[in-house]
UniProtKB/TrEMBL annotation:
Signal peptide coordinates: 1-18
Key words of the record: FAD, Flavoprotein, Glycoprotein, Signal
Cross-referenced Pfam families: BBE, FAD_binding_4
PROSITE patterns cross-referenced by the UniProt entry: FAD_PCMH (PS51387)
Domain of life of the native organism: Eukaryota
Ranges of residues in domain FAD-binding PCMH-type: 65-244
Keyword Oxidoreductase (UniProt): no
Gene Ontology MF, one: oxidoreductase activity
The family this protein is said to belong to: Belongs to the oxygen-dependent FAD-linked oxidoreductase family.
Protein name in the entry: FAD-binding PCMH-type domain-containing protein
Taxonomic classification: Eukaryota, Viridiplantae, Streptophyta, Embryophyta, Tracheophyta
Cofactor(s) of this protein: FAD
Length: 523
C-alpha cells in the first residue's frame, strides 16, 4: 500500500502525495487546458483561503465534518468550465459547482462524508457580470454574482425596474435562481425562477448550450427551480426585470408576548396571504418576540391605511414606516441604518463574507392556520445553549396563480406560508459534533401541523436530515432519492426531474448527497 501523508488545516484532513492515479491525471489534464493560476490544490498557498472565502457556516470548517475537494477551479470564461467537466469525465473525477457559498448543507464545496469519492469544485465567483438592457427590461446575470450586485446594477442602469429575489445581498444568483428564489416581491411578481427567460450552461459532456433552444423545454424547465448542480453548470441567466415605483415603503413592527405577539401572528396567518399583491408582510420570531417586516410598492400613507383596514391588530403607523427607493430598500432590510452612513455600492457590491456561527436550517410549508396554542409553544420552545429563529414567508398573490407544475417548485396555490427554522450555536471546542436540538425537536413537534404526504421542504434550505442518496451499481438510487426529492419538488415534479436527468446525464456525473438521480428505464 502506498504511503499516504495528511495535512491538517481548519480541521479538514487533506490527502497529500499518494492520490489515486486518476486524480493526478485529472490535475494534469486541467493544467494543460486551464491557466495554472485558476487551479488551486491543497498544496497551493491560497487553497485554504479560497475554500473558506464564501463559507458562512462554521459547521463546515470544523474537524472531520467532510472531505475537502481535490482542487478548486476558478474559471474566467466558459471554456474553462467546459475543460474542467471534460477532464473530469475523462479521468472519472466528479465536479461540484459553487457560486457564492450560501449552501445550507455546503454540498457545493464539500462532501457530507469523509469517506466519499474525490471531487473537484468549480467556483464561479469570478463570473459575476450583470448586463442590463433597459429597453428590453431584461438583464443577463452570471451565476457567480450576488443578488446585491444584481439589484445595484439593475437599479442604476434602469431606474424604475427591479428584480424579485431574496434578502441577503451576498446570496448567490446561481443558487437562489436554481432553487426557486423566495422574497418579499414574490407575491407581486413570482419567484426569481419564474422570471428567468433564458440561460447558458455547460452540460454533462462539457458542451456549451448557448440558450434555451439548445437545451430544449424540459431541461430549461428543470434548471429553473430544480436545484443547482444536478443537470449541468449554468453560467448565466437572462431575467425579466419588473416595474417598481419611485417610492416604496418598508415598515417594521415588533411585539413581545406580553404585547400580544402570539395573537398577532395567529391573525397574520390568514391576513398576509390575501393582502393586495403590492404588499408583503413576513414575520421573524426570535427571543419570544415577533418582528413583522413589510414591503409595500407605494407610499407610506397608503400602506398605513391598508394595514389599518385589514390588520388593525398590528397597529402600523407612519412612525413605523420608511419611504425610500427600491434600491435603498434592498440594502435597508439587511443593513438597516448603515445605508445612511455608507454608499449603497459599498454595501451591495461587497462580496466579502465573514465566517458566522454554527447553524442548522430546516423548513416547512403551512396549508392550514396553526392554532394559537401551537404558536405559543413555538414561541416558548426551549433553546438550551442555542438561539432559535423562525422566518415566516407569506405566499398568495401571484404565487397562487402559477400552476404547481409550471416549474419544479410546487408550493403554489395551496400554501399559506413557508417556515424556515434556523438554530445558531457556539460550537467552538466541540469539533462541530455537538449540535443543540432546538431545531430538531421543534421540527418533530410541528409534523402534525404542516404539509403532509409528503411533508414539504424548500430546496434552497437544503436539509440532509430528510434523506441522502444511495449509489447502487454506480448510479444514484431513484428510490433512495425520492425520500428527499418528493419533499422538495412533490412526487410528479421530482419524477419529471429524474426523467430529464436520465436524458441529459444518464451516467449520473453530476452527483452529490442530494442530487437528482436518473429515472430508471422501467419507470
Amino acid at each position: 500500500m502506498a504511503l499516504v501523508l495528511t495535512v491538517c488545516f481548519l480541521g479538514f484532513f487533506v490527502p497529500a502525495l499518494a492520490s489515486p492515479s486518476n486524480d493526478n491525471d485529472f490535475l494534469r489534464c486541467l493544467s494543460t487546458n486551464i491557466p495554472s493560476q485558476l487551479v488551486q490544490t491543497p498544496r497551493s498557498p491560497s487553497f485554504k483561503q479560497l475554500l473558506v472565502s464564501t463559507i458562512r457556516n462554521a459547521r463546515f470548517v470544523a474537524p472531520a465534518t467532510a472531505r475537502p475537494p481535490l482542487c478548486i477551479v476558478t474559471p474566467t470564461n466558459a471554456s474553462h468550465v467546459q475543460a474542467a467537466v471534460r477532464c473530469g469525465r475523462r479521468h472519472s473525477v466528479r465536479v461540484r459547482v459553487r457560486s457564492v457559498g450560501h449552501d445550507c448543507e455546503g454540498l457545493s464545496y464539500r462532501s457530507g462524508s469523509p469517506n466519499s469519492e474525490g471531487f473537484a469544485v468549480i467556483d464561479l465567483a469570478k463570473l459575476h457580470a450583470v448586463r442590463v438592457n433597459p429597453q428590453e427590461a431584461t438583464a443577463w446575470v452570471d451565476y457567480g454574482a450576488g443578488i446585491g450586485e444584481l439589484y445595484y446594477h439593475v437599479a442604476t442602469a434602469a431606474p424604475g425596474l427591479g428584480c424579485p429575489a431574496g434578502v441577503c445581498p451576498t446570496v448567490g444568483v446561481g443558487g437562489i435562481f436554481s432553487g426557486g428564489g423566495i422574497g418579499l416581491m414574490m407575491r407581486k411578481h413570482g419567484l426569481s425562477a419564474d422570471n428567468v427567460l433564458d440561460a447558458t450552461m455547460v452540460d454533462a459532456e462539457g458542451n456549451l448550450l448557448a440558450d434555451k433552444k439548445a437545451m430544449g423545454d424540459d431541461l430549461f424547465r428543470a434548471i429553473r427551480g430544480g436545484g443547482g448542480g444536478n443537470f449541468g453548470i449554468v453560467l448565466s441567466w437572462k431575467v425579466r426585470l419588473v416595474p417598481v415605483p419611485p417610492t416604496v415603503t418598508f415598515f417594521r413592527v415588533t411585539k413581545t408576548m406580553d404585547q400580544g405577539a402570539v395573537d398577532a401572528v395567529t391573525k397574520w396567518q390568514t391576513v398576509a396571504p390575501v393582502l393586495p399583491d403590492d404588499l408583503s408582510v413576513r414575520v421573524v420570531v426570535q427571543n419570544r418576540q415577533a418582528n413583522f417586516q413589510a414591503l409595500y410598492l407605494g407610499n407610506s400613507s397608503t400602506a398605513v391605511a391598508m394595514m389599518g383596514s385589514r390588520f388593525p391588530e398590528l397597529g402600523v403607523t407612519r412612525a413605523n414606516c420608511k419611504e425610500m427607493s427600491w434600491l435603498q430598500y434592498t440594502a435597508y432590510i439587511y443593513f438597516r441604518d448603515d445605508i445612511y452612513n455608507k454608499p449603497l455600492d459599498e454595501l451591495l457590491l461587497n462580496r466579502s463574507m465573514t465566517l458566522g456561527p454554527f447553524f442548522k436550517n430546516k423548513s416547512d410549508y403551512v396549508k392550514k392556520p396553526l392554532s394559537k396554542e401551537t404558536l405559543e409553544k413555538m414561541f416558548l420552545w426551549p433553546e438550551g445553549a442555542a438561539t432559535g429563529q423562525l422566518v415566516l414567508e407569506p405566499h398568495g398573490g401571484r404565487m397562487g396563480r402559477i400552476a404547481a407544475d409550471n416549474t419544479p417548485f410546487p408550493y403554489r396555490s395551496s400554501v399559506l406560508y413557508n417556515i424556515q427554522y434556523v438554530e445558531f450555536w457556539n460550537g467552538e471546542g466541540t469539533g462541530g459534533k455537538v449540535t443543540p436540538d432546538w431545531v430538531g425537536s421543534l421540527y418533530d413537534f410541528m409534523a402534525p401541523f404542516v404539509s403532509k404526504d409528503p411533508r414539504g421542504a424548500y430546496v434552497n434550505y437544503r436539509d440532509l436530515d430528510i434523506g441522502a442518496n444511495k449509489v447502487v451499481d454506480g448510479v444514484t438510487s431513484y428510490e433512495s432519492a425520492k425520500v428527499w426529492g418528493e419533499s422538495y419538488f412533490g412526487p410528479e415534479n421530482f419524477k419529471r426531474l429524474a426523467k430529464i436527468k436520465r436524458k441529459v446525464d444518464a451516467g449520473d456525473y453530476f452527483r452529490s448527497e442530494q442530487s437528482v438521480p436518473p429515472l430508471p428505464s422501467n419507470q
